[in-house]
Amino acid sequence: MSLRAPAFGPYDWRHFDSATAEVLSSVDIGAAVSIAGTTEAAIAVSPTYPGSGAAVGTQTTANRVGGSVFWRPGLTIEVILRGTLTTGVTPGTLVLNWRLDTIAGASLGASASLTLIASQTTLSWEFIGDIVCRSVGTGGTLFGMGKLEVNNAVLASTAQPVMVPPSAPVTCAIDTTAAHQIIVTALESNAGTSMICQQQFWRTRD
Predict the structure, then answer these.
(1) For 176-204, what is each residue's pLDDT tens digit?
(2) Which of 19, 78, 108, 134 could potentially form a cystine with 141 if both were Cys, beta carbons 3.0 to 4.6 Å apart?
């Protein structure tokens, strides 16, 4: 008897076929983005999926997470981001957030304000989170939960892991019949701090 698992089980990662909106396999990898300063800004933006009105695989700034051909209850987008942090003599604090559409858009839940350690250069961080579709339509809902881990030299081990958000998942209203984008943002309190996203992986599962 063969004990080999089937090629596509209920929890396998799959990718989109733009012609049929069927999920098939794989990953979208984004380019590095550097954010420095004291204004909340995007460090990562979701890739294009069917129904978004843009070509699959493009990395434009237009809305890109698709309409009714994309969303369904239970659909999950996993976000994996990796990069580096640099802090100045006065490092200040960092808040990581993820939002719908714009910097002012509805939040899927921000981290707590994190106190950074001074004078650190290009130390690694990783964020992993899930965005789950709970309901669809003009009154659709999403919720997100994730975890940020940072090199202990720039964020004390006693402050980690960082849950995003720190408590229960935040329910985010969404019109799933329209195209959207999901952005991950950083807000630093001191201009001497720079957060760079060097890898973006956006994957989906049912």
Answers:
(1) 888 888 889 999 888 888 888 888 888 88
(2) 134
